[in-house]
Design brief:
Number of strands: 5
Order of helices and strands: HHEEHEEHEH
Number of helices: 5
Oligomer: single chain
Shape: globular
Helix content: 25-40%
Structural class: alpha+beta
């Protein structure tokens, strides 16, 4: 958990100049996505459609809290890297407008968990399926 928080903070520090632009965020376009993204707890998956099909990302409570405090973007993660989606980037906005958020307990969650982990070589990344008992 500490490593994940470190990665988030490091990524945000690297993005400082990028998100400090004077462009006005277009958060109204992403109001539905933002509401889904910031609700709940624990790990959740985001499926973003792209030219190659779909990319599965995930995020957790630290990203959720950062999005509540700062509406300039969203931080999603692949197995190896964080991926910022900034509201000033129209490509990112278009991707997130059609993205689906799947949380623990929803029908696709286990399938997305397997897909996310299938090519993951990072030993620190584990299943997002809550353990019973």
């Amino acid at each position: 958990m500490k490593r994940l928080l470190f990665v988030i903070v490091a990524a945000l520090l690297c993005l400082g100049p990028a998100i400090a632009q004077d462009a006005k965020p277009t958060t109204d376009e992403l109001a539905g996505f933002r509401a889904a993204y910031t609700s709940g707890t624990g790990l959740a998956y985001v499926v973003v459609k792209n030219d190659q099909g779909e990319t599965v990302y995930r995020y957790g409570d630290a990203s959720r809290e950062a999005a509540r405090r700062d509406q300039r973007g969203f931080m999603l993660f692949t197995c190896a890297l964080p991926r910022p989606f900034l509201v000033q980037d129209q490509g990112a906005v278009q991707s997130l407008k059609t993205a689906r958020i799947i949380k623990a307990g929803e029908a696709e969650f286990a399938e997305l968990d397997r897909k996310y982990l299938s090519g993951c070589r990072n030993p620190l990344v584990r299943s997002a399926i809550p353990k019973k008992g």
